[in-house]
Write a structure and sequence with these properties.
By secondary structure, this protein is an alpha/beta fold. A hairpin with a 2-residue loop joins strand 6 and strand 7. The longest helix is centred in the first third of the chain and has 20 residues. The protein is globular and about 85 Å long.
């Protein structure tokens, strides 16, 4: 049985403290266990933090151009190893290889932005703020940062975090999901190959015990998290109580508003990708579609049914598959349960994907696409995140109801509107109570030089991921007020605050 070790001090490491706790890593396409990962503890984390703290001092003193050169080389290595990384990612997560490449590419784009850290991290300067007085600010690293990342994007989200944190001069400890940990370890290996000091980026595996150790450790200054909302709120509360800076991104129930004038052929094509791509295991998936008006709903449904039935579900290395299996048998069972709940609540089951099996891979964690119609806001299945290949139709009578649905929902990650009407799109984008909006864009994940972040229970903390927001999260501001008097002076006014 293959063991996926921790990556400590620049090399693979066993359980460290002698812990025998192991977690199984599945191959979702075959339904077989393919590896084990040791679950670390506080003693292992102590070792990682001690190393990171030592290495970070020298790294922070390295000029930003040299830090950027490591990022440039890391980007090159990612491009050179794209195929092998994607295949490794797909084998543990289950998403198809092309989708896995997209996972890596969106992380790589943040690394590209981090290559510009000499400019992004510049401070401000004011000449002559007072008589002979200049004021300037500098952005300095926090020290040791940590990231706790989910299973659904094992390459992208870690790079969102450590790319910005390390470029800014911090050391970083990554705790990836124990469900698909191989790619995060491989990224750390490539980072050392790119010229980073050993111990600057370390990977520790674990479950709640390791999460709590990270949140409580006095040597960790900041924590970034992506996962479910309940855990995000827990991470935020416990981390802040321990005096840390915390950003914690939670769950989502993103809506796609379809106006009567929308290009329905394009909408259906977009929905098939946004709702069912990566088996729906995306926090920016589009699991709720809101047609405005009964005529729009009926026309959309008529086009959706054959398009969904034509989707191909396959193993992760099938080049013709639209999506692959879900990540674990437990997650498959959870999705099946949610579909049953939706039916019991009164939803109309238009397409049922629960009994899907793939010939030759009957033990794999596959689900066919599911379509539910006449879902209402009083249903629990509407309010909660299903996180699977399930699309729910919630019919809206008019534009006002379409704006209100995502605005009143507990989650506020992303939303999209499909229309040819510029005024309607502009009005919707301005009024909807959601953090990221797409106009005829089904998955509105911002590009790397903007930033990612939802509202309401989709995010806890005041700073978004990556971009300039990421740079601000991973640095602290120091402001210097200076005066250089002519001559030596007798120092008699040394204790007076200068008047600006």
């Amino acid at each position: 049985m293959r063991t996926i070790d921790h990556f400590i001090c620049g090399e693979s490491s066993g359980a460290g403290s002698g812990s025998a706790r192991l977690h199984q890593v599945w191959n979702p396409s075959t339904g077989e266990v393919q590896a084990e990962v040791p679950l670390g503890d506080a003693a292992l984390l102590d070792r990682a933090v001690e190393t990171a703290s030592r290495v970070q001092i020298e790294w922070a003193a390295t000029n930003p151009q040299r830090r950027a050169r490591v990022m440039f080389r890391f980007k090159q290595l990612l491009e050179e190893n794209m195929q092998s990384l994607a295949e490794l990612l797909a084998s543990e997560h289950g998403k198809v290889v092309d989708d896995a490449k997209g996972d890596i590419q969106r992380g790589l784009e943040v690394i590209e932005f981090a290559c510009g850290i000499p400019h992004a991290q510049k401070g401000e300067y004011t000449v002559g703020a007072g008589s002979g007085i200049d004021v300037y600010s500098m952005r300095q690293p926090l020290g040791v940062g940590a990231g706790i990342t989910p299973f659904n994007f094992p390459a992208m989200i870690p790079m969102w975090m450590f790319g910005m944190a390390i470029a800014c001069g911090n050391a970083f400890i990554l705790k990836p999901s124990e469900r698909d940990p191989s790619v995060p370890v491989r990224l750390a290996e490539l980072f050392v190959e790119a010229g980073a000091p050993e111990g600057l980026l370390q990977v520790v595996h674990g479950d709640k015990e390791m999460v709590d150790a990270i949140l409580d450790h006095p040597g960790i200054a900041a924590v970034s998290f992506v996962g479910s909302s309940d855990i995000a709120q827990y991470v935020y509360s416990r981390g802040v109580a321990a005096g840390k800076r915390v950003q914690a991104m939670g769950g989502a129930k993103n809506h796609g508003i379809v106006m009567p004038d929308a290009d329905l052929d394009q909408v259906v094509n977009d929905l098939c990708g946004a709702a069912f791509g990566s088996a729906g295991e995306r926090c920016m998936a589009l699991p709720v579609v809101v047609p405005v008006g009964e005529d729009t709903a009926e026309r959309l449904r008529e086009k959706l049914i054959p398009a969904i039935n034509a989707l191909r579900v396959g193993v992760s290395h099938d080049p013709d598959a639209h999506y692959g299996p879900v990540v674990t048998p437990e997650h498959k069972a959870r999705i099946v349960q949610w579909i049953g709940t939706a039916v019991d609540e009164g939803s109309e089951l238009v397409i049922d994907g629960r009994d899907f099996t793939l010939q030759g891979h009957e033990k794999g964690f596959f689900l066919g696409p599911t379509l539910l119609d006449r879902v209402t806001t009083g249903m629990k299945s509407y309010h909660e995140e299903i996180f699977g290949p399930v699309l729910q139709i919630v019919r809206a009578a008019d534009f006002e109801e379409a704006v209100a649905l995502p605005s009143k929902h507990q989650y506020g990650n992303g939303v999209a509107i499909f229309t040819r009407n510029g005024h309607a799109a502009r009005e919707f984008a301005a009024r909807v109570n959601v953090g990221m909006v797409g106009v005829n864009v089904p998955i509105p994940v911002p590009v790397s030089y903007h930033s990612f972040g939802g509202w309401k229970r989709s995010a806890f903390g005041d700073t978004n991921q990556y971009g300039m927001e990421g740079m601000r999260f991973w640095t602290k501001v120091k402001t210097v007020t200076q005066r250089w008097p002519d001559g030596g002076g007798d120092g008699s006014n040394a204790f007076l605050i200068p008047t600006l």
